[in-house]
Structures are given as C-alpha cells and as structure tokens.
C-alpha cells in the first residue's frame, strides 16, 4: 500500500536540519543514562541536563580554526584542484575555515584554499563578501528605511516586546516539546567524555530508529565549560569506523576577538559592488499559530522521520543544470512576483541575464552533473553515503536520506 501524501506546516518547512541543533533538541528523548566523571574529570550529567545547558547558554565570543571533511563516496570531480576556497570543494576532501565572533551580531568566516580565500564578514544588518580569486568585494546593506525598522525590531527584541503570541518556552519546555517527535525517530544517549581542540567535552549520540535510512548516527561534542558544540560527526549506516561528514574545531579560544579582526576593510585595488537587500515585511499572522498549508504546487512528501522523501515535479532539469535563469524562476515555490522591487533587484544580482551563462561562472555544471550521477532506468541517480537524489526522465526530482533503490521504487509508483 502506498504511503499517504502529506503536507507540511510553514514551521516544519523552515525547520532546516542543522545537525548540532537537532542533536541538542533530541537529547531530551534520551533514556535515563548518565555520563560519569572519568579520566576527563567532568561532573556527572544526564542527557536532559546537558541539553538544557546547551539550550540556555548565551552565545560565546570565540575564534578558532574549523576543519570540514566530507567522505560521501562521490566520484572524483573532473576539474582537478578547485582551489579549496570554492563551494564545490566541500563535496569531498577537507576544507579549512577560520572563524571569529563576538557572540552577538559581529562575525567573520574565511574559507581557506591552497591559493585563495573566500571571506564573509557580518556586522549587524550589513555584510561583506570577498573573493581573492576575483579580487572582488560585495557589500550587502539595508535601505535607510529598512535600517530604521531593523533597529526598531532589535530594540523590541531586547525589551521582549515583539508581538509573539503565547509564552516563550523555557529550555525545559522546549525539551518536553521535542520528546514527542524524537521518540518516534531517534534515541539519544551520552557517549564517553572526550577532548576537542584541547577542551574537555561531553558527547551526545543521536541514533535513528529507522533501519532503512542511510544515516547511522550523529555525534555532537559539547564543550563542558561553555556548552558550545565543538564538533559534529555524521556516520553512514554502511560505515561504522569513519564519519561521512565531520566539522569541528582544531583550536578555539573563547576570548572576544579584537575589533580590527571583526571590522571589514576592502583590500587595496579590489572592486566593490553594492547590493541593497530588502528587509521582508512580517505579516501580523506570522506571529501566531496558523493551520497547516499546502506545499508548493508540484511538491509532495512521503515517509516520516529519517525516511522522508521530498519529490518535485515538472522541472526542466537540463536547463537547471545548465544554469538557465528562466528554469530557476520556474522552480516550485518560487514567487515570480517577488513581492517588492527590492527583492527583484536582489534576485537580479545573483541570476545572470539571459544568454550570459551559468551563475556558477566557468564551472562546467553539465560535466559535474554527469560525473556525480549514474544512469538508471528512471533517469539519473546520485548516490552518496548520506543522501540519494533521483532525477527522472519525466522531470521529477526525488531526494531523501534513503537508498537510491527506495527513490526508484517511489518514482515507479
């Protein structure tokens, strides 16, 4: 019997699965196991207590080096050395980032390559990006009117006067709300204490109860002093020895970075492009609970929990792969009217004019697509250690943390 098609509430659709946050929230569903004081000398704590500490901890100022490693089992890319400071490099191998934050609205992240660097600097409502490859700066800012509204919203948030209906949940209440969902999909325990970047840490282990998902387990190392996640490791169900994805600090300091580090200064000679970003209007009904709404036309969801599969239909995949902006505009859920001229202007900054080529620049996206996928009776299939993507010949795309055979069976229904 086919599984019923479901719809998602707006809140669910925006619940991006950030691994660290999910693991912390799910920790409330752990059985009554305790971490004992061992060689690390850390106090005994339960998963519930540790999760509450993480949820209630104030953001800490920090600086450090982060290493991201992907072992997804994808084919070797046909482009040689992509320089490291290129998002394509994140599909395989290791990438190094330097991060700085004041624990508030100021931060800097630098993705380091062998011969290049890509930096993102944020200071409240303003942000800058810099690519050393292009020697180009992009400055994102608000209009004067939106900047005033931003300041007003910030002041309201600090005073607790934002128009939110109902009480804001405490960490304990948030944990109780998470228990119901977590028990349906995962178990969470505490592993032995460890050390990350020279700092003692507890480890939360999230294990899916599904025996068909590609995800074996997720381990989050939490700093014992600041309750800051220091490392996230995601294992594939097919490999219990080496994580398929790993991101964590190799060194970290919780001192406030110098102002000169967090302030942006354009390198001499770099070109600068200004982009005014529209601050979205928040309708009054967004602050209250609303009934479930239908998914965008052409999008369906099957399965639950770790076995969820999202399917989009009516896509011109060849045009999307080639970077055709008109194909991108036709994606399900894309608002072609944008809602404001500012949003339309922002869209035009990222999407090339017709006939000007792919937004990926000189990257041969068609060759990349052909390399990462293999031909199957239904179309083309991307299989990795944690995720499968099936692109059918009739313009459907199915995505899930499940084996490719599961997507093929759903496509045939």
From TrEMBL:
Source organism (scientific name): Cellulomonas humilata
Matching InterPro entries: LolA/LolB/LppX, Sporulation_related
Gene3D superfamilies noted in UniProt: Lipoprotein localisation LolA/LolB/LppX (2.50.20.10)
Coiled-coil boundaries: none
Leader sequence residues: 1-29
This protein's name: MucB/RseB N-terminal domain-containing protein
Keywords (A to Z) from UniProt: Signal
Transport recorded as keyword: no
